[in-house]
Amino acid sequence: MTALRTLALVESATQLLNVVEWAHATGETADLRIAVLCPKDSPTRGQLREVGALAAGSGLNVDLVDIRALGSGGLLGGVRLTRSLSAAHRVVLGDPFSGLIQTLLPFVRAEHVVVVDDGTATWEFAACVDSGAPLVRWRLEARGATPRAARATRLLSPGAHRTLTVFSCLTGATPVGAAGIVNRYGWTRSQGVPQVRADEIDVVGASLVETGVVDRAAYLAALARLAARATGVRYLAHRRESENRLAEIAALPNVRVQRGRLPVELTLRQGPVAAHVITFPSTAAHTLPVVLGDLSDDATRPAVRVEVRRVEDAWFTPSTGSHARDFVTRIGTDAPARPVLEPA
Predict the structure, then answer these.
(1) Cβ–Cβ < 8 Å for 104, 113
(2) Which among 281, 270, 199 is positioned nearest to 234, based on CA atoms?
(3) What is the largest CA-CA distance in the chain?
(4) Strand, helix or coil at 112?
């Protein structure tokens, strides 16, 4: 049997979307298999099914691999996946920080690896590869890194026996010695022209409270202030936000909560979208200006204004370290989205 040319491994809808963007941007849609390593949580699985259907509709081969399942099903899926990994000529990864991906890396024999955006963590990936530090998520302490995370850095570093390409919409996300391709979200933008509404603003949620980085009360207070200045707010929930947290947000005056079936980039591109979009420091502050930037009322004025509500120092929880604080600050200050200006 002829060896598969390209195998992609993804665990979230955002990763899957960016593999689709890479395939269409580079023309590598043929002989590509996208293996979706199904997570356990329902919101993520639901989004993966929706994006997977769109990807399949564009001619891509998308397979669901329930590698985390208990019993023989998960074991058989794992055996088949490791064989495919060993045979692939090129491997595309959605999350190099994933423990599951790091466990599978030793089976990779491909001479070329592509890493696509899994949010702003791509910055941290580049920093770890350049410094030789273990691949540990930015909000965690590197001193607790496992040998697996250190091995992942070695296996993904570009060198004589392996080339690395990073596909990203972020600036400064390509390690030294790697090739960089800009993600312009051409496939997402081809999904249609959304209706632009002016009756309320869209606020894009973040997982900063769920990950323990930002204080819950400070986040809710910031949302309340945004809602007080608008006729209405549609809050687009992050997939990691709990039902209890969303109930608190929905109880705020002028706020309605929507849990999307797609990543926010596709949700807003398909529409409707508000003429004013506000995001907290997250990947959306970098992707949405690209995804929505071609919409305009005329030749000079954008139809959708995207702004970022930066995190203030007082919002951070006491347990949030300096590296995580600096990283969140960078997400806001380096974003192409303009900062929200609040009255004193």
Answers:
(1) no
(2) 199
(3) 67
(4) strand
Domain 190-339 class in CATH: alpha beta
Mean pLDDT by 10 residues, the chain (344 residues): 79 96 96 92 89 95 81 64 94 96 95 92 94 86 74 94 96 96 97 93 95 96 95 94 95 96 96 96 94 79 89 95 91 88 52
Q: Is the CB of residue 257 less than 8 Å from the CB of residue 250? A: yes
Answer yes or no: same fold for 6-183 and 190-339. yes
Calculate ∠ Cα 62-102-177, nearest 5°: 90
User: Which CATH number among 3.40.390, 3.30.2420, 3.40.50, 3.30.70 corresponds to the domain 6-183?
Assistant: 3.40.50
Phi, psi of 127 (to 5 degrees): -65, -40
Among residues 73, 94, 75, 93, which one has the least CA distance to residue 85? 93
Report d(CA 321, CA 330) in Å as an integer: 14
